[in-house]
Amino acid sequence: MGSTSVRIVGSGFVAGISVKIDDAVIPATVVNGQVIQLTMPAHAAGSADITVAAPSGASATLRQAYLYEIFAVTSIAPAAGIPAGYNVVSIAGSGFTNETKVTFDGIQAEFAGFVPGVPGAPLTNTFLRVYAPTHIIGPVDVVVINRDGQLRLPNGYAYAPSETFDFNGVWTGVAWERDTPIRVAVENNTLISVTCGSASHMFSPRVPVAKGVFSVNEADIKMTGQTWSPIEANGDLTIPGCLSEWGWTANK
Predict the structure, then answer these.
(1) pTM, 2 dp
(2) Domain boundaries of the chain, sorted by first residue
(3) Could you give the CA distance from residue 79 to residue 230 in angstroms, rounded to a whole number?
(4) Residue 76 — very low, low, confident or very high, per pLDDT cuts 50/70/90?
(5) Measured distance CA(222)–CA(83) in Å, rounded
(6) pLDDT tens, residue by residue, 227-244
(7) What is the separation of C-alpha 114 from the centre of its chain, rounded to a whole number of angstroms?
(8) Contacts of 119 (CB under 8 A, 6+ apart)
């Protein structure tokens, strides 16, 4: 992949200086005595040496100074979510840049900035994290777009009702205000227990989970939950000893 604009920073740069990427001489602009501006040419994947040569014949080489990465997508997780959208979708691959965009059936997805309980940046050269846009039920193509091209994943994502996702299992995440750890256990489509920080509650009788949704309104605990995708759920929670006024989110 080429066409990326880069700067070489150093000293003693003068008019007439030349730049090589491996053995290929490429156009370069001397901005001032400390900066050279250039556009990287197309190149096979892997590291490239950069050599700067002065008109006097003096030169300096930076070995493996630039890495060409293949633009690729290796996984999308989860590969399904509810029609309302706004569940977090993680895309792994390589060659992503700050200009990379993602569309679902032509609808551009917003990058997921701060996600409670999920560390890391929403965009790196190998990882993207976006919110699935709202869409009707059914499979859609996912397209990852760079300025050098695009990758289309036919039927790469499916919109489906929350009742089609399995809620059973242990969900772990956080209560939002202070990233307090939370654990929600579901078995045989019934809510068994919730633990939030030092607070813990066992449900007796167990609370049914119907169509991917549950609701609790007891004297000492109020809680709701809904699946957004096969691996993401969230809701509201009021339980003594747990700061969760803004709700909770968890993954399985």
Answers:
(1) 0.73
(2) 5-68, 72-160, 163-251
(3) 8
(4) very high
(5) 26
(6) 999 999 999 988 887 766
(7) 11
(8) none
